[in-house]
Amino acid sequence: MNFIVKNTTFPNPLALLAPHSCRGCGRIGEPLCNCCKNYIILNHENYCPNCKNLNPTGKCPNCQNLPPIFVADQRSTLIGTLIHDYKYHSVRALSKSLAEILNHILPLIDGPVKIVPLPTINQHIHIRGFDHTYLIAKSLVKMRPNWQLENLLLRSNNSVQVGSDAKTRLTQAKNAYALNPKISLNQSATYLLLDDVWTTGASMQSAYQKLTQAGLSKIIITVLAVS
After folding, report:
1. Which residues are registered as beta bridge partners of 21?
2. pLDDT (tens digit per residue) in 148-183
3. CB neighbourhood size of 151 (10 A)
4. Residue among 84, 173, 176, 179 at smallest CA distance from 132
5. How confident is the model at residue 5 (pLDDT cuts 50, 70, 90)?
6. Backbone dihedral angles phi then psi of residue 70, each to the nearest 5 degrees
7. Under 8 Å CB-to-CB from 165, ≥6 apart: which residues?
8. What burial class does residue 113 get, using C-beta atoms within 10 Å of its C-beta: 0-12 exposed, 13-18 middle, 19+ buried?
9. What's the CA angle centered on 182, arms 180 and 183, to 5 degrees?
10. How many Å apart are CA 124 and CA 46, to the nearest integer?
């Protein structure tokens, strides 16, 4: 993976004092300038978040139980800083920048595509004032004419996973999602599951299982960062 700026526990002081400065180079104007965004895109190498092997096609030969997965970068890079400021410092303008990065790393897909953001727990939406994955998905559909945003998944529990160990995360994620009964499934469409961070993969794999149990077979996954 290509590293630009190492992410730390504490945000860049300049980013807090000047909300419209680039999180990569500090240039005033946007939270992510075109130069830094293009650097991320041009130096992108896709890899499997499960076994960590490079995986240009998305479909990992070592992890046959998983669908094609497309990852922007590791969380320890600039991507992690962007996600942190976006979620915890309400830099909503980054939703478009993050969507643009995903737009460039995702392949062309024939036919209709339904973007399914993993729903954020109610507590976090209340604290932040917005659903971060939903806003990224909303920006992404504007960049692909045949793509639609579909809130197919609902939270069936609101357990907080931050700080939990892998075993606890797996238990919490097992029944975290339910299908939205108000939405009809389209067997001919490709369903794109979207989330910001893959930590243990428990949440995403739980969501994937819900879709496959419903009979859907054309599914791909994308995440911005892997811890």
Report:
1. 28
2. 999 999 998 765 555 555 566 566 677 899 999 999
3. 15
4. 84
5. very low
6. -120, 125
7. none
8. buried
9. 75
10. 29
Residue written as token pair 């504007």: 142
User: Which stretches of the chain are DSSP H helices?
Assistant: 13-17, 34-42, 78-88, 94-105, 122-128, 132-141, 166-174, 202-213
Residues constituting the chain: 227
CA 27/CA 33 separation, integer angstroms: 7
Q: Which of 94, 177, 176, 88 is nearest to 129 (CA)?
A: 88
Helical pair 78-88 and 94-105, crossing angle rounded to 10 deg: 140
Contact indicator for 7, 76 with CB cutoff of 8 Å: yes
Tokens of 114: 């339904």
Burial of 35 (C-beta count, 10 Å sphere; 0-12/13-18/19+): exposed
Per the listing, tokens 């860049």 go with 12
pTM: predicted TM-score of the whole model, two decimal places: 0.86
